[in-house]
Amino acid sequence: MNYACKSVIGRRRTNEDRCCAVSNARGSILLAVADGMGGHAAGEVASEMLIETLKTQAEHFAPLSLTEPALRNAILEANLSIYRAAEDSESCRSMGSTLVCAVIEDNRYLAANIGDSRLYLYSADRLTRITKDHSLVQTFMDEGSITPDEAAVHPLRNVITRAVGTNLTVEPDLFCGALHEDDMLLLCSDGLHGSLSDMEISAILSGGGALEPLCDSLIDAASNAGSSDNISVVLARCTGVQNI
């Protein structure tokens, strides 16, 4: 398994995104993107707390068959820490963060998301969105009141309905699946998917090559498309794995 991650400030004054791609002693890999929110640099505090908690707990993310409760507990621990920190500091009062993460072991993955950071699977030249946004426009689409094209330009498209740290508890959505040779997982903040369509993302991934240049290509494309947000990308490619 190869992996890479990159986060850039984009056209913002500060980078409130955080990302990681790390392996633990048992061979499992943790991938994560967190997009912080809140004034007075509070967003970067929340996303940093979230990512650091996950990294600290990563040793418990194996074997994969027992990882779900450990991952859920790590998210709940981070949520409570951020919530209490926000209560204790006026400048951090409104802070919180999105989260998308995946734990990979051999050819299997377990993923979780809260908010509108996304996980995609690129397999057999096809890009599939694994996660579902917790956002107002997603709610409107579920109700049938707007189309995906309308959601992309809706004035409330950046409003999320679930975040880490904004309430005493939080419920992540969980997903699991199998990976095949050369499959790629893409985790990203809305700085990427808010500026590029799934078709445009797929076209870039189809070019193949090393993962770090692919991260650069995705970020450059989002910037050139007018992204005004921080942009974070994590990529992992499945290699040398015996599929079961």
**What value does the average pLDDT take?**
95
Annotated CATH topology: Phosphatase 2c, domain 1
Terminal CA distance reads 16 Å
The description of the largest β-sheet is: 6 strands, antiparallel
Instruction: Describe the global form.
Output: globular
Q: How big is the Rg? A: 17 Å
Query: By CATH's scheme, which homologous superfamily applies?
Result: PPM-type phosphatase domain
Helix proportion range: 25-40%
Task: Give the beta-strand count.
Answer: 11
Low-confidence stretches: none
Beta percentage is: 25-35%
Count of DSSP-assigned helices: 7
CATH architecture: 4-Layer Sandwich
SSE topology string: EEEHHEEEEEHHEEHHHE
Q: What class would the helix/strand composition place it in?
A: alpha+beta
Q: Please tell me the total number of domains.
A: 1
Quickly name the level 1 CATH class.
Answer: Alpha Beta
Task: Label this structure with key terms.
244 residues; alpha+beta; Phosphatase 2c, domain 1; 6-stranded antiparallel β-sheet; 5-stranded antiparallel β-sheet; 11 strands; 32% helix; globular
Can you describe this structure?
It is a single chain. It is built from seven helices and eleven strands. The chain is globular and about 50 Å long. It has one domain: PPM-type phosphatase domain (Phosphatase 2c, domain 1, 4-Layer Sandwich). Strands 2, 3, 4, 5, 6 and 9 form a six-stranded antiparallel beta sheet that branches. Strands 1-11-10-7-8 form a five-stranded antiparallel beta sheet. The model has no long low-confidence stretch (mean pLDDT 95). The chain is α+β, with helices and mostly antiparallel strands and 244 residues long.
